[in-house]
Here is the input.
Amino acid sequence: MKIAILASEGAPFCKSGGLGDVMEALPAALARIEGNEVLLILPYYKRIKDNPKFKVRELCHFEAGVGWRQAYAGIMELEGGREGVRVWFIDSEYYFGARPGAIYGDIDDGERFTFFSKSCLDAMAIQGWIPDVIQCNDWQTALVPTYLKAMYSHLFPKTRCMYTIHNIEYQGWANASFFDDVLYLPWEYRGCMDMNGSVNMMKGAIETADLVTTVSETYARELMYPYYAHGLDPILSAAAWKLTGITNGIDVGTFNPATDPALPAHYDSTSFIQGKAACKAALQYEVGLPVKPEVPLLVMVTRLAGHKGLDLLCYIIRRLLWEEDVQILILGTGEPHFEQFFRELSREYPDKVAAKITFDLGLAARIYAGGDVYLMPSKSEPCGLSQMNAMRYGTVPVVHATGGLRDTVPPCDEHGKGGLGFTFQSYNGDDFHAAVSRAVHLYHHERNNFRELQKTCMEQDFSWDKPAARYMNLFRQMLTW
Ligand code: GLC
Here is the structure.
């Protein structure tokens, strides 16, 4: 099957969050399946262009229409591809190549990703690379199914399109005038792009895609409710017949405690006690905490944003430090008030709290390995990947039972039996506190059970093989229509 995957980010080229990880692993997993040809298309951001590791050659260039204007677009192909995947970058100095800094957040993001979405279709048409299915992701490529139906169906008569929601918070809202100025879609599509008088690109994709998926089974169900759906619940309820949740995997090749080059010691599920202890001691030393093997180290790698559950952590952290003999280590950047809170707390409790307000993939890996307990109290979480990374490295998760956290961390009892971690159902500080206490108690008083639980976590199959097979089933289903 010929599969084109379109996205606004993909590791190792460019990544701002979980979407980037998925776009690294899913195309490769699909390419490993016999008979598949996979093409990944990404924007040619300045940071990709400036990185000498990524060698490209120009396939061709063309004029892309953005509204009534014409814009230069080039197709750059990554030499040799990556893990069996062909990779194209859409080149535009104006929209991507000459812009330093973050990959999102420009005032004209709507126009930039309209250009990108349309150019992906143009590029495939010009190169004669006609896929059986297109899989596109989040608001940045949400226009693809709509353009495909409205303006490109003669070029791609049999191509089917799947749209995947990784996070419903960012929907691609624009003023009503964006429809005429930038989108230039036929008039009949005004209604499907419209939400309360404005343009909503994600809504258009939900309505025009052949199938819609999201990144966990529970999140698919949660999206039927206003609490989670940020206004799109009626749209998704009406489209429930074509909505499926497929829980992401992680790249078990990259995230492997037996080989990860970022770690000071290596281990696997059959023998991890010494290796993990060495990683913990090195980590405590690295972040300036007292090197104490017997004190449980609670860790968190996260964007410092409210919906990641930091408000709950802030609420309970002093009580936790007062009641329990623990160390807490947090890595991430984000909202200034959280950054300041954790900086100040680490000054107040230098022996118990360490805050690394930075983005550091190597340190993140050492934290997954060196921690004892991984905290992830997200208010909502479409899938979440770091809880799986933590489990793979033998770090026991404590999570809010929502979205993908609920699907990947079945709850265990207070003796650590019957599940993979400690969970709490209702989003409040006391329940979170109780779940953390259960984990700490198990660590202190039933160490053998704690180790058993670590081992069970490490033995899980979090690879992309199963999710990739589920994507394939849906692709095949679309092709029968
Ligand atoms: C988004 C979601 C996260 C998910 C990731 C990959 O970042 O917030 O929960 O794991 O996408 O699908």
Remarks:
- The mean pLDDT is 97.
- The chain has two domains: 2-249+465-479, 272-458.
- Residues 17-19, 22, 166-167, 215, 248, 381-385, 404 surround alpha-D-glucopyranose (CB under 6 Å).
